[in-house]
Task: structure prediction
Amino acid sequence: MVRYDPPLRDYHFLLHEVFDVCQEMTTLGFEEFDQEFVDTMIDEWAKFCKEVWLPTNAVGDEEGAKLSKGVVTTPSGFKEAWAAAVEGSWFATVCEPEHGGMGLPLCFRNTMDEFAISTNMALAAIGALCLGVYDLISEYGIGCLRSLYSPKVATGEWCGTMCLTEPHCGTDLGLIYSKATPMGDGSYRIKGTKLFITGGEHDLSDNIIHMVLAKLPDAPEGTKGISLFLVPKYLPADYVSGLPEDCSDQLAAEINGVGCSSIEEKMGLHGQPTCAMNFDDSVGWLVGELNMGMKLMFEMMNRERLATGMMGLGLGEIAYQNALDWCKERRQGRDLKGVNDPTEEADNILVHPDVRRMLLRVKANNEGSRALGIWIGTLLDQMKRGEGEVQEAAEALVAVLTPVAKAHMTDLGMDSTNDCIQVMGGAGYIRESSVEQFYRDVRIAAIWEGTNGIQALDLVGRKIAPNLGRHLRPLLWPILEFIEENRDIEGMAEFTKPLYQGVRGLQQVTLLLMSEGMANAHFLAAGATDYCRYFGNIMLSYLWARMAKVCLEKQGDDMFYDAKLATARIFFERIYPETISLAAKIQAGHHNLMTYPEAMM
Ligand SMILES: Cc1cc2nc3c(=O)[nH]c(=O)nc-3n(C[C@H](O)[C@H](O)[C@H](O)COP(=O)(O)OP(=O)(O)OC[C@H]3O[C@@H](n4cnc5c(N)ncnc54)[C@H](O)[C@@H]3O)c2cc1C
Result:
């Protein structure tokens, strides 16, 4: 039986002791966001995930989603688990009150995401899509589209999808074939096939609202000619043509030529249907302006990328908990320094340095990633609600940190679930352990929402290079300030010293990438993934130093702080030094990669 204890203590620590989010959110105008309220909400959601979603997770993996005669059925218990979250208004927490939401800060959402992902990533990812679709409609929906669709999608009563990928293109969306024909009454007819659509068809909700990328017949070439359309599975009840004047009380009723032709057999995430979707002259409405589809879809994708980063953490965490339990029980060999437990024939495997190397690495990366998730969450709130310099700085930081969080946290999630299998030996590879499911499930997170390689290129090519590294200033200066302010505090040097070297190193590799990359794009691209990892490592180093500072003041009061400090030491000793090899790989450049003849590969 899988174990999951939501890391509530860690969240309370991060939210209140490290980031002081209640104070921060009060400054941003969220007046009712006090500590008691936050803790109650988090505790309740964690309880819900553990009690309602977790029991469905292994069932979902075993049974999988099924397609029969165009109808997709989710595994046993999924419908009820989804309905219970809708009933509890859990999906709408960060949505606007006018759409049935609670208007909570976005930083709260990342916390929610982790518990949901750990307990059922298949459902959690559909929930993240609903929120992304909600954001787009409530921001850019025209007229009554907003009043009809926003509240239903906010609550999860109706689900949402993003339809970008086509059979011949995923990364290069400029190649899409899907067409949108204007009908002259404000509506369009959408025709095309979309592949790999998460939750494209299922039985969780009465309607599914698709966000579809398509091109008008006379649209400009490539991505500049892509527009975004809202295409519902079912049209409003008395839909005749065009955009209804007032559709606030209309229910979904008429079918709209949207069909699922197949669902994929996948490595993991079996409970979630991944659908090939056909749009057969389906009625759709433009979202935003013509030919602005990629820009708007990027807004949604950026939201999804952060949620995807949390997938690395959510599955890394539940894998850790189960691997740890197993290691405590498993007895093999003796401590190299002598018998540890004379009452047994062998010691448990936690006496072995190599087992500890793996487990503690997972723990340090999980806790660092969690801090990164909360930090970015608070920046999103500053971006949305802040003013002037606060808002501008937050926007610059979120732009840089989004690809880093997506790629680094999911890379770590893959490493962590992999290590958790390894520490369990053969048992880790066996289905009964559940850890192998987490490993299979997390794998997709490095691929969808733009592969991690594309995130790295986004970081160097779009976020860093065009600004000649200026985006780094609002990020690195506060870190250098933090080092300056804290380096002389007793006990802090062991954290601030490597952090300082790491920041300087990051500045150097950035300069190198900029100078060489200007002259040769291959140099920039060859170093992108290692640069993104370097970047992620330094962000986690900074957050570990901040956490260590809080714990140094409180150590001895509570084992929690002692454990945190010990984990900070593990991070700086065993994970931070990876920056050295990453820097060497960035410096190696592109030459040998690009001159290697294809015929010899
Ligand atoms: C389970 C699942 C669910 C999905 N859900 C959705 C969904 O809901 N909606 C949706 O629209 N799509 C979805 N996708 C599609 C997913 O987003 C794409 O698979 C992903 O973006 C990669 O595209 P691709 O598979 O076409 O790979 P390709 O674009 O063919 O890329 C193959 C490899 O080449 C690399 N590559 C490609 N171009 C470049 C470049 N310019 N520079 C450097 N490297 C490059 C990539 O990084 C990758 O490693 C899903 C996919 C899966 C498997």
The chain has a mean pLDDT of 94. The longest strand covers residues 274-287.
